[in-house]
Amino acid sequence: MSYTIYQSACDLQEHVCQILKENHCLHTLEHVLKVANQAKLMAIQWHSDVEKCYQAALLHDISAIMPRNEMYDFALQQGWQIDQACQKYPFLLHQRISAWMASQYFGIDDEEVLSAISCRTTLKREAGDIDMIVFLADKIAWDQSGIPPYLELIETALPVSLEKACWIFLDDQLKNHRILYPHQWLLEAYQDLKMKLERKGIMKKYKAIIYDIDGTVLNTLNMNMYPLMKIIKEELNEDWSFEDVLKFAAYPGMKVMEELGIQDKEKTYARWVQYVNAYEEGASLYEGFETVFPAFQKAGIIQAVVSAKTKAQYQIDMVDKGLDQYMEVAILAEDTTKHKPDPEPLLECIKRLQVDLTDVIYIGDAKSDALASLNAHINFGYAKWGNVLKEDLEGATFIFEKPLDLLGLIDATTE
After folding, report:
1. What is the pLDDT of residue 415?
2. Over 90: is that where the pLDDT of 58 sits?
3. How far apart are CA 365 and CA 157, in angstroms?
4. What are 257-266's pLDDT values in tens digits?
């Protein structure tokens, strides 16, 4: 054996560090620690098993201690069936050898951990979350200098799903001939992921994207909530804090009047709108939309808005900012008799756009947006950045953490 390895009573990270240092694999050690930290962050984000992801990432490259010219003979000795890619490039055996070492030398017997190690380069058919997290962490925290050429693709697809991020990486590698010789596992993973994404609708080609405005496109929290506190004082003679009124942030205006028990709802709501329009700060565009709107327009995807805003508010918040230039249709408070969560506003918008229900996705930040999408039988994208309560919304087709994450829809739409 031309490498050094031994049992140790210390924790796994320390043991891995010792072994890699003993075998003069300092570059690999640096890479492994970066991948392990990346895998831990992704496991938290995707509610996966943090410890298993961390263990697999720490051991994913432990076979670096074995000289590459010994790998093929080692695999033959183990009686393994060797893929053609590994026959041509034996170093590709490193993922299976790392899994073997994790089991034999480090006492790892968890099948999910060993699986993630064994496919960390190629992935495989029916990959689990831990497999995909370690696979992607290895690509994000790559072992070369500079920024990975595919990093933006992965980061754009990740908010959609782990499957989308894995598939788009493999697609990029195959289409740009960045793979020396495709391993059978990689080809099977590529096709398997594509079928799963198609079944989930994630590879869907959207013709139109409809946005909510408040809390989705525009940050209107302060300009709505502080005037509401003034209305409550005037109408109810009660002093409410900013935190007290936050629960109304996602409600349509008249719904707020009902919840507060205001007697003259329409007159009071009109006065609230006056206070909102006069609010000094005004509405601000969420960072990222200055890129998102032109990108969808360039991709030939129709954009529209459905909002409970009045036409006067829309003039101030959207038209005066030049944002209406991106919108083919705007359905506002005066355009329908019913409002979200009723589907009427969305259905009216879709009718005017002349597209099918299956070709549309609605992007919003509130439960009423999710319910309206459900009632209209269209896909829903949860704009989590605008939900002040940070609540989970059931039934979302996608969850987006920031506006730029929406660009992941372009990849699916323009394939």
Report:
1. 45
2. yes
3. 20
4. 999 999 999 9
Give the pair of three-digit tokens for residue 364. 């919003």
d(CA 31, CA 351): 53
- Topology adopted by domain 12-200: Hypothetical protein af1432 (1.10.3210)
Domains 12-200 and 208-217+284-413 share a fold: no
Q: What is the pLDDT of residue 202?
A: 67
Are the C-beta atoms of residues 400 and 385 closer than 8 Å to each other? yes
Instruction: Break the chain into its structural domains and give their ranges.
Output: 12-200, 208-217+284-413, 221-278
> Which residue, among 340, 372, 335, 348, has the nearest Cα to 251 in the 3D structure?
340
The mean pLDDT of the chain is: 91
User: Token pair for residue 141?
Assistant: 């925290």
CATH value of 208-217+284-413 in 1.20.58.60, 3.40.30.10, 3.10.590.10, 3.40.50.1000:
3.40.50.1000
Closest CA to 292 of 413, 198, 149: 413
Return the SS3 of 210.
Answer: strand
pTM beyond 0.70, yes or no: no
Contact 40, 54 (CB under 8 A): yes
DSSP state of 86: H
Please determine, for residue 51, whether its predicted confidence score (pLDDT) is greater than 90. yes
